[in-house]
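Changelog entry: the YoaW record was regenerated in this release. Current contents:
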Amino acid sequence: MKRFLLIMVLVCGFFSFGSSAEAYSFPHKLNLTFTGTHVEDIPDSDLNVSNWHIGYKFTIFNAENCKTTIKIQMMHLSGRFMSLSIKDFEGDWPDRTAQDVITLMPRTYRLYFENTEGECKDIRIKGTYGAIPQTYDYFSAFSQR
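Regenerated structure tokens:
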């Protein structure tokens, strides 16, 4: 009986392990076309609470010969922005597969888009982004409590 319970706990924990942007539904929509760089402020990210996440899920179009860099940046008290997460996406990324999530602190955040390599003109990005509260999976053996 003890073996059975141990096996069930391990199996349930294995199938619910991991946290990625797939599990999140972000509140703000984005549909933009840009060449060079673009800055998008993230509203509602200066929250005075703990256990929040900030991130995005995007589809990237018209970037066959390009590298698009997306940075999640936080403003310091001095007014300068520091990159907390930098991800490079080469070419097109279908079905909102260009994604990232980080834990946030009560500060002002923004997304910084940059075309770094190749012939990049009129890159189109569509998807969702924003700040969301952390949700716990209480049925997972690996959940944080």
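The helical segments are 2-15.
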